[in-house]
Design brief:
It contains 3 helices and 8 strands. With 124 residues, the protein is α/β, with parallel strands linked by helices. It is elongated, with a radius of gyration of 15 Å.
């Protein structure tokens, strides 16, 4: 089994560039509109919804854009990067919330995008 992609919902289309492209350095592979008929059948959401398929290395995200704010739960995506301190600095410089939990062997680092999606960041 392998992970094909992770689907997220964001509330501001500007996050595609500001967070996913500029901060996470992902590339947009394609964008499309999920028609309301199909969205209703799959997700019980009756409206056309813009979506973006993004990639960096082996990570693929399908990002749906809606004007509704997310409710927070335990949902997050864990990624590993070569230089996580650089990613933290870039994120904080753009006013993204970074959470660092200090531990003896390795700090836990989480970054939130403006829609409330949480990324746990590990060092490769």
């Amino acid at each position: 089994m392998k992970l094909e992609h992770i689907a997220l919902t964001i509330s501001d289309i500007d996050e595609i560039k500001k967070f996913y492209i500029d901060i996470l350095e992902m590339k947009e592979l394609k964008n499309f509109v999920l028609k309301s008929e199909l969205a209703q059948k799959i997700f019980n959401i009756n409206k056309d919804t813009s979506a973006f398929f993004m990639q960096k290395d082996d990570l693929f995200l399908e990002i749906f854009v809606t004007d509704e704010k997310l409710k927070q739960g335990f949902n997050h995506i864990c990624i590993s990067v070569k230089d996580r301190e650089n990613l933290v600095e870039k994120s904080e410089a753009q006013n993204y919330k970074c959470i660092r939990i200090e531990r003896d062997f390795s700090d836990l680092i989480f970054i939130k995008d403006k829609s409330g999606n949480i990324f746990e960041v590990k060092e490769k």
